[in-house]
Request: fold
Amino acid sequence: MTPLLDALFLQAGHNAALVAIGAGLLGYASGATGTFLFLRKRALLSDAAAHATLPGVALAFIVMVALGGDGRNLAGLLLGSAITAAIGLVTVQWIVAHTRLTEDAAIGAVLGVFFGVGVVLLTVIQTMSSGRQAGLEDFLLGSTAGMLRQDALVIAAGGALALALTWALRRPMTLVSFDADFATAAGYRVSRIDLMMMLAALVVTVIGLKVVGLVLIVALLIIPPVAARFWTESVGRMIWIAGAIGGISGYAGAAVSASAPNLPTGPIIVLMAAGVFVASLLFAPVRGVAAAFIRQRRFKARVHHRQGLLAIARQEPIRETFTLRLLQRENLIRADGVPTEAGRAAAAKVSRDERRWDIARRIHQDAGLTGRYDGLTPIEDVFTADEIQEFDRRIGPPVAVEG
Amino acid sequence: MGAEFVQFSLTPILIGILASVACALPGNFLILRRQALIGDAISHVVLPGIVVAFLLSGVVAAMPMLLGAAASAIVAVVLIELVKRVGQVEPGAAMGVVFTTLFAAGVLLLEQSDTSSVHLDVEHALMGNLESLIWLRAGGWGSLFDPVALATLPPELGRMALACAVMIALTLVFWRWLKIATFDEGFAEALGIPAAPLGFGLVIASALAAVAAFEAVGSIIVIAMFICPPAAARLMTSNLERQVLWSVVFATLSAVAGYVMAGYGPLWLGGSDSVSAAGMIAAVSGVILGLACLFGPHRQRVGAARSGGVG
Amino acid sequence: MTGTAGTKDVVAARIGSGHRGASSGEAALSVRGLTVSYAEKPAVFSVDAAFAAGAMTAIIGPNGAGKSTLLKACLGIVPRLSGEVELFGQPLEKARHRIAYVPQRASVDWDFPATVLDLVKMGLFRSVGLFGRLRGEPEARARACLERVGMAGFADRQIGQLSGGQQQRVFLARALAQGADLYLLDEPFAGVDAATERAIVDVLRTLKSEGKTVIAVHHDLATVTEYFDRVFMINVSPVAEGPVAEAFTAETLMAAYGGRLAATHVDELALAGTRV
Reply:
């Protein structure tokens, strides 16, 4: 078998299998967790949390060395990162609540400043005798090279925690993301639910540091939910679709990365997810770009079609070139702009329907029926044949449209 | 403050100030337009630009890298706009999707290409090397008037001065348009002011400032300076003209104090080595913002926020 | 649409001989086949309209009927799917200097760092350009506009500190500073106090007496007959148009608002039909 297939079927060695499973779990947890951040329009909050982990990692290293231990203990480093990331998130909240600054500015400020402090601390560590081989730079871009069984277990446990939190609170979270004011009125503590949302994202961010690094964990929290949004209108389903996109990207990305040299795990995973996003953006059946483009073209043609026929009926000149080309293509007008027989007939029909609608709105003064008037729905779809006959009786006999 | 200062500290401090001001100026408008994170996005996508430039040109030189970084920044801005409009994705998420993807592509390219022989790494991109932009040939303050010594000034100084001058000029020239289009885009368009191209131009100009600064001082300063000085300035005054002046003051203060504290702070504390100047400048700007959040005379919002208008 | 022959006479009668000359009965703003659509649901559909010069016209219709969208499309702020717009017989771009615009108050962030005078001066940005002088005579003009809306004493106030009615007056002052012939206002009376409403109406009536044209999106049916001389009724498509006496009737209202307008409410309105 090829190296890629080996890796995909966990046949490429113990470490590769561990990494693939760990990355798959991480991807699933981050996709599902990121869904509510995205729906709450706070996707980039994860960016602030991720960058704010750096000073925590560095401080944890310094503290552990000062206590005489090995500075590289993963659990210790992750604990440190979680603490500063939480401080960063609280700072964002505080700035938004207590100053005139908006959330994007608060996120950017926390992100830049915490990261700056982290870099300062990294240079401090480099000057420490035990710091030369600390390898803390791995947390920037992730490193799965020396992943241990216990690392995979940490990821699995953290991922399960974040998933459980998201699942348990999916209803209040849905409510808060859709309409925070209504949620407050309904008796939910919005700030507490927001906090839980961020806690779940924080857990994913921290466990993701090892695999994909602090810059790219943001991608795993954002890209799968955005891609999932193209496929469904239901929040419940969106969580699992986003999870699946993240999980598949994580698993397949790790496998691809293990199949050849110079394919770093984090970037490959992110590019996998980005591929799914692009495919969703373009080809999703309803919300996709291709579908929307075709619908918009058709709609525009319908509007111009009707507009042009009305102009013919009123014997006004048609000036817009789009309309002219459209009607020519449909053989409703000749190349010189003069209506054809079919064009005159169609114009008479459109003009008659307009008058029928006028009458209809006068007779049926309820929004239920007349609210459906958009000029494009055929009147036959809204009213019965005898109702239309009644309109016609009031209008009088048909009038021919002159060429 | 003698010859040693001129040799080792003057040019890094000047470059730091110029970079900070160049980023803080457009940052004022980005913050008011709720696009503060565009600086963050741009500083991430600079990496793939630089790698591609290296792969195409085969050399590690300032010009190709600047061009590559600028090109990738523009590509990113266009992509973000595209995802936002075409996919109807909320701006923050659109930004997050695009910049992380491009960054991942940059890291992958970097690993794939054989760059081990050259100095091109992620760490450098993040932290810059402000400390190395020294003026070795300077013998003291007198060198400022010595053409031979002046010719050996680090080229980054000239480039950064140019970038800063361009940003100042653009801010002054388009002041009125920026002000009105930022406050009330609909009214600006009704006046016939090209508000949409102007907004795009602002982002592109920010990208160019970021790229120029990035080359000299690394992306940390860029991210922090786009946001912290203007944000702190916003809490100091309710007048746009004064806000921009305050942001320049804060940017300058961050650069000077950050550099000095990074270089001399550890010595004062009994240490022996300096710490990252870029990181320290970002940290100082954060302290200034923190103080402004706590004590700024105009820290509370006064006017009602915009609501989604229908009709 | 109702025929324009009769309405021309009405307009001419109201604005007197001053405006007759070359533009006898000329429309200040005319729209042909205008459709605006955000997705596949049109916000404004197939609108033909001619807004008479020198008149005060109210654009009325239920919520979501496309009133504001119609204004914005006329100004080129939202893109048109189809249709043409002419101002004083010229294409939009050639006549921009002749329109002033008052957007909805809620459409901007009032925490923006600017003073009242700063905001009014924005109305001068087109005429003075990027570098033209804003002090001296232009500033005096801006202050005079503030005076007209009764806000002269507030010139140096931070805009966020104004009440809703004061914000609306400042927006109107900014439009006055544009020195236009046609004033397009989007819900100028929404959420303002009674004193402000009177002040705004006074200014609009003065504009009319100076021969200017006023078109306002209006939501309060009870004041239509008192404030305006013409109405344009829309519910995505145009429903009725003409002098208040002819077009603002129980029948047209029912056609535009349908079941959303309680019958009792219609009876309470000072309808033209019941007054005549």
